[in-house]
Write a structure and sequence with these properties.
Helix content: 55-70%
Number of strands: 0
Number of helices: 8
Structural class: mainly alpha
Largest sheet: none
Shape: flat
Amino acid sequence: MLFGLKKQVAKDSKFKKMRTENIKSLRKLAAEREKVEGKLSRRNVVSDYSSFASQVYAPQTRVGVFLDRGSELYNVKNRYLNTYEGLLELENSLPDYVTQPRIKLPNLIAGKGGAKKRFEKRLKELDDTAELIKLEKEKQFEVPAPPRFLQKVVRPPPRPPTPSVETPSEEDERRELAVIFLQQLLRGRAIQNMMQEGKEKRMELIDELRSTEALKPEAEKLNRDSKKAARAVQRKQRMMHHKENLANEMLEGMVVRTLVRCQTS
């Protein structure tokens, strides 16, 4: 019995540790999922202060923020509030209208539809309600309470015996552990077989992807060569255009000089 209890305690502690590690890993995965492809998101101050569920208003204690830390600094410590003599002194220092309030009734306006008529109507309704309540109380008769010492004391039923479980032998425990280990091996092998079957079914797609990856460098090389050829053609066209412009300018200069000579002669 003691051996089984120790094993149960160890099992519970192991499960608790595994659950804690699982929670930590899930939090890490959630944090990494927010940074897909290494894209870091900067802090948005407007969204942080507009959402009351953000870290600004409700920080998490596992990060190291405790909201009640240093709360004793804000406690009001005053002699007038903590001691009886201080309260008496504070009461004596207050004016009379604070401790003895004076209530003045408003001036009721007489006439049809005035405040006085409404006040009287409301007062009559309150009187009628109070009279009805009084009549209801008078109608009810008081039931005498039963004697205290003549009441029957009902005892609770006896508690049932605590169930007990037989402690398994060491041989049974070893056999159970061996069966569990064998089940894990079979499940792992079944998963490996499923993965192998999926790989064989999609072998054509895998080969196609591998071929495209192999042809990528050649395609990039052809693209670079075509770009170089296009740049060379453009450079040649610019040179030809420049030469034609220079020839046209020289011809225009010669024509102008000949015209000027003819006019002067």
